[in-house]
Structure formats: structure tokens, C-alpha cells
UniProtKB/TrEMBL annotation:
SMART domains: FCD (SM00895), HTH_GNTR (SM00345). Keywords: DNA-binding, Transcription, Transcription regulation. PANTHER family: GLUCONATE OPERON TRANSCRIPTIONAL REPRESSOR, TRANSCRIPTIONAL REGULATOR, GNTR FAMILY. Residues 26-96 form the HTH gntR-type domain. Gene3D superfamilies: GntR ligand-binding domain-like (1.20.120.530), Winged helix-like DNA-binding domain superfamily/Winged helix DNA-binding domain (1.10.10.10). This is FCD domain-containing protein. It comes from Streptantibioticus ferralitis.
Amino acid sequence: MSGSQENGRAHEADRLAPVLRPVRAGSGFEEALEQILQVLRLGLVPYGERLPSERELADRLRISRVTLREVLKVLQEQGLVESRRGRYGGTFVRYRAGNLTAESSGGQSQEELRRRVAEADVEDVLRFREVLEVGAAELCAARELDGEQQDRLRACLAATKDAPLADYRRLDTRLHLTLAELSGSPSLAAAYAGTRARVNDLLDCIPLLVRNLEHSQAQHAVLLDAILEGDAEGAREVMREHCAGTAALLRGFLT
């Protein structure tokens, strides 16, 4: 394997780390399905790209390849992934994260999203999201991130800077998931991944506003400066303000 391929695989492992983790004995199928669905909903593997190999997924989830194939079969039946044979084959994503359309009926329609919003406790989701995000920002700033970790954060921020509107929410999600992962608490990262998926369901029901995205980008830059400078209190306050802005938009459109 070439150096570039190895780097690509390492990067893929990094971006999936907050979500994919060993499942508990006795509930392997259900938990594996939940985690791979989160990978799709969070856009960690974008539309048209290939999921990690069966061997890698099974190893990361600590399940048999037979169980994994049952999971992938369900996702394929729902139109969320497709299997391709041959040298360049594998399991490819058909679900468009951060977009109300999908190539197949397996994607969520706007009516389906609004039904899910109606069933959600929006205030509870937003409060819990703020607690996790603010805590993650503080922990990141309090840690001494190494050079590779700092570069990952900078790369995530840079990816959102000039992202097309259709990709922005997915890349924004990746930035926030990376912050949660680098907090040093796997439990926090796992909890945040699930919460962010619910937040994204809410965000998918409101329009992307360019002015809001510009403001968010400015906040992201200040936040990263605070984290890299070790300013835990500053990171907390910027993240709290950032979460409050998103919450205000969601309340305005949905309640």
C-alpha cells in the first residue's frame, strides 16, 4: 500500500472514531446498525463514497462479518447504500446527509423529517447539545493537543471555509465531532455523535442562511484560536455563544 493510501485510511479512521466503537455483547446487530446509520446521517462518509471494508468495519465494531453483512443488507434494502462488485467494488453511500433529497426512497422526505421533529423534545436536544459542546471545547483547550491533533482541527476548519452550501453541514458536523473526539473522553464523543444526529434532523428542516454560516465560521475561527492557545474559559464562552445562535434559529423556525 502506498503512503498516500495509508494516509487516506488513517484519515478515514479518524473521522469515524467518534461513532464507530465496539458494540456490547448480545446486541451486536442493533448497535452496529445504529452506529453505521449515524455515520450516514452525520455525513462522515459522504454520498457516493465507499464505506470502509467489511473487514475493517467488523474489526472496529467487534462483530462477525456475518452480522455485519446482515446490517449492510438492511441498509441496502432501505436504499441507503449499494454494493458493487469487482476490483473497485465495495459498499457505497447513497444517502445525502444534510440534504432533504436522496437518490432513493430510503432517504428522508421533508414530511418525514418534520414528523420526526414533531416527535422530538427540541428543548431537551438543544440543552444537552450545549452541555456536551461546551464541555468538549473546555476539555480540548485544557489538554495539550499534539501537532497531529492540532492539524486535524485546522484541516476541519479549512474544509468548511469555502465549502459549497450542499456540503457545509456535513463538514461542519465533522469539525464538531472532531472537537468531541479530541476532548479525551470517548463517552462524551459517543454521546455527542448521537445528539448531533438528532440536531442535524432539526437543521435539515430549516434553510441554510449564508449570513448565519458566515457568523458561524467567524465563531469557529475564534474557538479554534482559544483551544490552541489553551484558553479553556474562552473556548467555553465562544462555544456557548455558538450553540445559542443555532438554538435561536431552530426555535425561530420550528417552534
